[in-house]
């Protein structure tokens, strides 16, 4: 599967915002009288200086009737420097509208709770030395059981010196907590393609110092072009319902929030190019927790590692759905979730974790972890209990940007790629969307694992008709690292209309292994017209023409494998390395309408192993083709029933000057080979020695072994290019060299039972007895009857000679006969050494015993007809 990588980095942010209220905001920082020592406010122009409040140890408590800051205004908490935590509450009924600056002295953490709601305008800023936690909770709970309550301020007059342990949301009749809104002008991000890094021109918006926490916890959380920044720190967005309790845990310099005691959530939305950024020397962490989480219109969550420290975790949790949709207003910036390692960075990137019921990526939205430096890219893990859907692309200039899950190592990077893991109920990838772990650098690409309990469906190609929808692990052009392994496990897998699942290499590194396990079925169907060539649906382990690495192996385990309508299952190396091995284990294999299973190589390898009780080909093929190397790939088939119809082929072809044709081995013990309608089995070579064909079967129907001389006569030509059994109307088995040298002809060995079903047939009388004596008048005597027994001996199906129930000989099973065609393809017959030393005896009649069972018999030669030996009980 070819990938479009770089163009998705061409970004520019949008610059729009949304006003939630048309009413002018007036300065309203009004203290209440609920504390032992009440807060005071001194107004100096547009600056509100907040003093007083009640101190308990290193905790400072403020209480306000209202708290709002108009545009270009400031609120200054004038605390002493030894204060570690400032707790402020709003006990009145008004929303906090903050469009100015909040400042505090020293390194104090600032907590603001207002159960009525909080709006941060596009001019809102923070200038504090510690963390900032804003919430619409009703109270802050402490370890000693005391609550600092905004809804019941008189309940606990004694304040505490303890650290807070959580945010308590009171129950209400509306079943909705008040919301928090952050407005802004958008993120204004872009990418330097030459250096493969983000140009961060985004406004910082609401920001806390390095290694601190910025947390917004309430009802619905909405960022409308708003920007949140915590360099190397932690940003928390939590949306919970009434009655919830969110834990607070201090860890070093940050506050970590926990939602273990929350029963239900509300919604979180980032839109109009909003952004959340924890980039820095080590990259920070983000936790987003809600019911529905939506990132749209060019919005982004970022963690960029620029130094020697490693990034943290970007975690999105949603009980129902996570959605990333669409580009920004200018059409150049996709909604995305990104963890990145800069070119000069040595620290690892942040891991990305998405846990939800449903994940949707649409219209070019992307989730990416990547490295451009020495640090390892972060891993990407998706756990969606219901479904994961990646749909459509976004047009950008002359290309299409895919909706995608990517883990990438970029050119010149030395860090390894992280792993990409998806666990879900169902996975749908369509209209050019992609899931991939491409390696473009010097280190190995990440492994990709997809587990879907119900089904996986990959459909279609991108509108540019160049790139497929699909799942891939690859080593890209100019890379020196190996591609990662790809593992897919599901109940049902469907790949159609040009979609592909692949493990490939286009560079110096080797491709990884592709393993697919589908307990029910795998269906690969369809071929579509591409811009440059047709694009078949496929399962591929491939090395492209400019690669020097080996191709990967492809292993398939399923209940039923169906390949049809031009689709393919392929191991291939078009470069100088070896192709991998294709192994299929299935209850049934069905190839219809030019479906193909292939192993192609220039440098050896490319063998195929099929194990299935039932294999059916109709106008389809199982082939290995060798253009170079010492020999072509072998085809080994183990089955009980193998049928070829309508010009189907099982072939090992060799076209290189010193390339021997591959071998074909059929292990059909207790089974049958049926070839009809010009269906051939060949192990031919154009310029070198033909291969070997070995068949063990209970019986072979329709296929005839032929040597080169026979083909010349039947085709009436000595032209080597025309000596091909497909030009006959018969079904043939050949192992020849088209050069005509008898020493270069291949070998055909056939082991079947000792009875020839076409020889020694005995004509039996139609009438066993006089029908006028045994058949009532109502039964027409001229209606034919037949009795057929099929079995190992190839017994004749139309007995018609009178027989006797006595003087009979029962026929035992007989041994095998071996057919072998020598190097000059002269077919010979010989009896296997383990056969019993007895003559072949053919049935000449049949009788019914006292229990009504039919017994095949051989009559003594002197027996004459006895008309009373058999009685027909009824008309057919």
Automatic annotation (TrEMBL):
Filamentous haemagglutinin FhaB/tRNA nuclease CdiA-like TPS domain location, by residue?
A: 31-143
Could you tell me the superkingdom of the organism this chain comes from? Bacteria
Identify the stretch annotated as signal peptide in this record: 1-27
Q: Respond yes or no to whether keyword Signal is given for this record.
A: yes
UniProt keyword Signal, yes or no: yes
Q: What are the UniProt keywords, alphabetically? A: Signal
Q: Which Pfam families does the annotation name?
A: TPS
Q: Which InterPro entries match?
A: FhaB/CdiA-like_TPS, Pectin_lyas_fold, Pectin_lyase_fold/virulence
Full protein name: Filamentous haemagglutinin FhaB/tRNA nuclease CdiA-like TPS domain-containing protein
Q: Which organism is it from?
A: [Phormidium ambiguum] IAM M-71
């Amino acid at each position: 599967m070819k990938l479009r990588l770089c163009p998705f980095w061409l970004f520019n942010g949008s610059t729009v915002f949304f006003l939630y209220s048309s009413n002018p905001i007036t300065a309203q920082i009004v203290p209440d009288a609920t504390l032992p020592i009440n807060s005071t406010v001194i107004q100096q122009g547009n600056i509100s200086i907040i003093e007083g409040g009640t101190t308990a140890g290193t905790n400072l408590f403020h209480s306000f009737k209202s708290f709002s800051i108009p545009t270009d205004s400031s609120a200054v908490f004038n605390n002493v420097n030894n204060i570690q935590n400032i707790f402020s509450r709003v006990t009145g009924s008004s929303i906090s509208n903050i469009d100015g600056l909040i400042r505090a002295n020293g390194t104090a953490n600032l907590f603001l709770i207002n159960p009525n709601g909080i709006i941060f305008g596009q001019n809102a800023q923070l200038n504090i030395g510690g963390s900032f936690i804003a919430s619409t909770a009703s109270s802050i709970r402490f370890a000693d059981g005391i609550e600092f309550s905004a809804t019941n301020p008189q309940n606990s007059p004694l304040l505490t010196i303890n650290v807070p342990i959580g945010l308590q949301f009171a129950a209400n009749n509306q079943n909705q907590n008040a919301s928090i809104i952050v407005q802004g002008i958008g993120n204004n991000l872009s990418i330097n393609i030459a250096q493969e890094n983000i140009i961060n021109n985004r406004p910082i918006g609401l920001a806390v110092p390095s290694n601190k926490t910025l947390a917004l916890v309430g009802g619905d959380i909405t960022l409308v072009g708003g920007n949140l920044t915590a360099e190397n720190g932690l940003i928390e967005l939590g949306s919970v319902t009434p009655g919830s309790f969110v834990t607070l845990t201090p860890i070093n310099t940050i506050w970590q929030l926990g939602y273990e005691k929350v029963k239900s959530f509300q919604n979180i939305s980032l839109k109009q190019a909003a952004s959340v950024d924890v980039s820095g020397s080590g990259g920070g962490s983000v936790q987003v927790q809600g019911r529905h989480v939506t990132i749209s219109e060019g919005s982004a969550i970022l963690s960029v590692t620029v130094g020697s420290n490693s990034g943290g975790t970007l975690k999105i949790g949603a009980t129902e759905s996570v959605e990333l949709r669409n580009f920004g207003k200018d059409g150049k910036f996709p909604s995305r979730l990104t963890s990145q390692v800069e070119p000069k960075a040595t620290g690892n990137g942040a891991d990305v974790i998405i846990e939800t019921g449903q994940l949707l990526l649409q219209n070019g939205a992307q989730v990416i972890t990547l490295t451009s430096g020495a640090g390892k890219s972060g891993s990407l893990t998706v756990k969606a209990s219901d479904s994961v859907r990646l749909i459509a692309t976004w047009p950008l200039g002359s290309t299409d940007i895919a909706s995608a899950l990517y883990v990438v190592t970029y050119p010149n990077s030395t860090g390894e790629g992280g792993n990409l893991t998806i666990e879900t109920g169902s996975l749908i990838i369509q209209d050019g969307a992609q899931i991939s772990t491409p390696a473009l650098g010097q280190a190995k690409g990440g492994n990709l694992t997809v587990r879907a309990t119900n089904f996986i469906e990959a459909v279609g190609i991108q509108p540019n008709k160049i790139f497929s929808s699909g799942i891939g692990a690859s080593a890209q052009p100019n890379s020196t690292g190996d591609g990662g392994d790809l593992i897919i496990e599901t109940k049902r897998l469907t790949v159609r209309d040009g979609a592909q699942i692949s493990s490939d290499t286009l560079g110096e590194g080797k491709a990884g292994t592709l393993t697919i396990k589908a307990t029910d079925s795998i269906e690969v169907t369809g071929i579509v017209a591409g811009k440059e060539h047709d694009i078949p649906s496929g399962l591929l382990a491939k090395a492209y023409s400019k690669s020097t690495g080996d191709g990967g192996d492809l292993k398939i385990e399923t209940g039923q494998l169906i390949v049809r309508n031009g689709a393919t299952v392929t191991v291939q190396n078009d470069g100088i390395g070896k192709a991998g091995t294709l192994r299929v284990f299935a209850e049934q294999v069905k190839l219809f309408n030019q479906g193909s299973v292939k192993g192609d190589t220039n440098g050896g390898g490319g063998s195929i192993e099929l194990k299935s009780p039932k294999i059916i080909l109709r106008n389809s093929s199982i082939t290995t083709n060798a253009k170079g190397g010492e020999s072509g790939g072998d085809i080994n088939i183990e089955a009980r029933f193998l049928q070829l119809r309508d010009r189907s082929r099982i072939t090992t072809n060799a076209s290189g000057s010193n390339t021997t044709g591959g071998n074909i081995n059929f292990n059909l013990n207790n089974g049958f080979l049926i070839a009809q309608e010009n269906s051939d089995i060949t192990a031919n070579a154009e310029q070198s020695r033909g291969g070997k064909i070995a068949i063990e079967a209970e019986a072979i129907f329709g296929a005839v072994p032929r040597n080169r001389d026979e083909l010349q006569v039947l085709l009436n030509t000595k032209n080597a290019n025309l000596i091909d059994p497909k030009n006959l109307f018969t079904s043939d088995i050949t192992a020849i060299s088209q050069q005509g040298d008898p020493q270069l002809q291949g070998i055909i060995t056939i082991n079947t039972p000792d009875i020839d079903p076409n020889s020694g047939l005995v004509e039996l009388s139609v009438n066993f007895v006089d029908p006028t004596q045994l058949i009532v008048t109502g039964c027409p005597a001229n209606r034919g009857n037949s009795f057929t027994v099929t079995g190992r001996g190839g017994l004749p199906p139309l007995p018609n000679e009178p027989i006797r129930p006595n003087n009979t000989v029962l026929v035992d099973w007989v041994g095998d006969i071996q057919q072998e065609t020598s190097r000059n393809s002269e077919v010979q017959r010989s009896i296997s050494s383990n056969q019993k030393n007895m003559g072949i005896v053919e049935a000449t009649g049949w009788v019914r015993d006292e229990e009504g069972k039919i017994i095949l018999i051989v009559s003594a030669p002197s027996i004459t007809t006895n008309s009373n030996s058999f009685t027909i009980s009824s008309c057919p």
